[in-house]
């Protein structure tokens, strides 16, 4: 198998699926965290909302680029562009992991505290949001690993 | 510069410095978290202690291996061994980041809560421990990136 056709790297359908997964999970995480919940009282939740607000436009842009590459049968192979994509992916995946785990740490603490501190209705939404952020991180790690694998062949 | 002499990869003095940094920071983080503080009441703190307990023996072993390689002038260049080291480094660096950020999230929450919840003496130790864990993650990320960079040349 040629390095130019690594499944999951930019311009393949596997990459498009990974990007769509990132968009879906990070949007769902953002929605569960921000709608109807007072997330701004915890720094970690604000951080999660900020990071998800960065991940969504990034993944949407790259999903569009992937879709275009597949339709035009012209995958991105310029070293400069790919380097920007790989670095961006890595930075965002590190930030997503940090946000997801700090949220998970706080959710765990709130679930053990008494109910006045965190009504069950809110807590389950926080929990769901942090699980979705972990899923989004998983997809993001996949994209960045596959693109990193492609890099030495260019 | 040949790929065989990437500074920071296994068997160079830069790698030895990175490993010693990991050992120092993760030991300090473990000591501040575990001595005289009731860390077991928070899941995230237990997770940090567990992860640090994994990172310390791993880094000590690799620091010894690095020291031996430098003295014997015989760097490790077997693909199998290097692959195990890279994968182990990545897994531990991801775990360290997750533990450090969940601890940081909880410390931030405790610092905002009232003092009955977290006496200042304890809180500053938790904070210091999470900062040291971030430093340990930084060094661990360095090692794993440099070794990953060496991998395609083997």
From TrEMBL, chains A, B:
Q: Where in the cell is it found?
A: Cell membrane
Membrane topology of the entry: Multi-pass membrane protein
Chief subcellular location:
membrane
Where does the Casparian strip membrane protein domain lie? Answer: 10-139
Superkingdom in the source lineage: Eukaryota
Q: Where are the transmembrane segments?
A: 12-33, 39-67, 79-106, 126-151
InterPro entries xrefs: CASP_dom (IPR006702), CASPL-5 (IPR045009)
Q: Which UniProt keywords apply?
A: Cell membrane, Membrane, Transmembrane, Transmembrane helix
**Mind telling me which GO cellular component terms the entry cites?**
plasma membrane
Hey, which family's this protein in?
Belongs to the Casparian strip membrane proteins (CASP) family.
Task: Give the record's subunit note.
Answer: Homodimer and heterodimers.
- Its recorded name reads CASP-like protein
User: Which species does the entry assign this protein to?
Assistant: Oldenlandia corymbosa var. corymbosa
């Amino acid at each position: 198998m040629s390095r130019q056709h690594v499944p999951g790297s930019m311009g393949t359908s596997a990459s498009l699926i990974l990007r769509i997964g990132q968009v879906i999970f990070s949007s769902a995480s953002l929605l569960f965290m921000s709608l109807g919940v007072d997330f701004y009282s915890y720094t970690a939740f604000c951080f999660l909302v900020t990071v998800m607000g960065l991940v969504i436009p990034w993944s949407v842009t790259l999903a569009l680029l992937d879709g275009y590459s597949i339709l035009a049968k012209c995958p991105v192979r310029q070293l400069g562009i790919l380097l920007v994509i790989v670095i961006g992916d890595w930075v965002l995946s590190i930030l997503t992991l940090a946000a997801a785990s700090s949220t998970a740490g706080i959710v765990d603490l709130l679930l053990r505290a008494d109910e006045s501190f965190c009504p069950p209705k809110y807590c389950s939404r926080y929990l769901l949001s942090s699980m979705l952020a972990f899923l989004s991180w998983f997809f993001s790690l996949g994209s960045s690993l596959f693109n990193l694998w492609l890099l030495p062949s260019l």
